[in-house]
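Record type: monomer structure entry
Structure origin: computed from sequence
Chain ID: A
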Amino acid sequence: MSDNHQDVSEAAGVLYVVATPIGNLEDITGRAARVLGEVDLVLAEDTRRGSKLLSALGVSAPIESYHGDTVPDKRARLVGRLAQGTSMALITDAGMPCISDPGYELVREAVAAGARVIAVPGPDSVTTALSVSGLPAQQFEFLGYAPRRTQERQDFLRRATLSPVTTVLFETPHRIVECLRDLVQVAGDEQQIVICRELTKLYEEIIRGSAAEAAAHFEAEESRGEFVLVLPAGEGDGPAADAASDEDVREAAKRLLDAGVHTKDAAGIIAMLTGRARNDLYDLLVELRDA
């Protein structure tokens, strides 16, 4: 079944996935503002932020929360209302919903229930950061937020620096310094990076240079706002340049398990030696262990 891209006034039972500004309210599209004013219900990641946006637009639509902790029962009720003809708009705190934000489960279940899902595109921090990075973007990889734990974050960053294409990731102000220190740890002082902070806002900041320089910069001042990090494609001369083949990795995994090494420890050992993502290796080890 194809989705017909009709507007609210022409159709009911539609879930609109609506992009909202990532900082500058002037970036809201006319279509997004109109759709938000015409739907029966707005679903917001944070109703406080969502209400401020609606108020700024002069919109008085009913608003309910929808976020990563929304229970399946509530999602089922929302999908039921869609199936009965209610029109809804899904928004996140900033940017395009479902991109490193909750929403995909609602979209999937709405489609399964026969509702139409229509995107109302607009601001997006990933493509905005790429556009000003000065790095090739014919192909790129988006990895989302860096993990919280140090070892997992280092494995994650090692993978990013070895990617054959430009890589984009997110980080919070509370962990940006640790993230940059870990980047230096796994890739060296001269690892190049572009950091975009507070994109489109009054205090927008774009830093270009080495990871060590960036770490020193943010160590010297309090970090605020959301961060988008853009890394150039790896050149294959990092610690995992001679990465093992899939067959070699499986063989090493089997030997470690046979030797009684704990699954988590074995994943860390192979990640350190090969540059492979620790989480992927852990899944492989669990598969081999349970076979």
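Annotation 1: The chain has a mean pLDDT of 88.
Annotation 2: The chain is about 40% helix and 15% strand.
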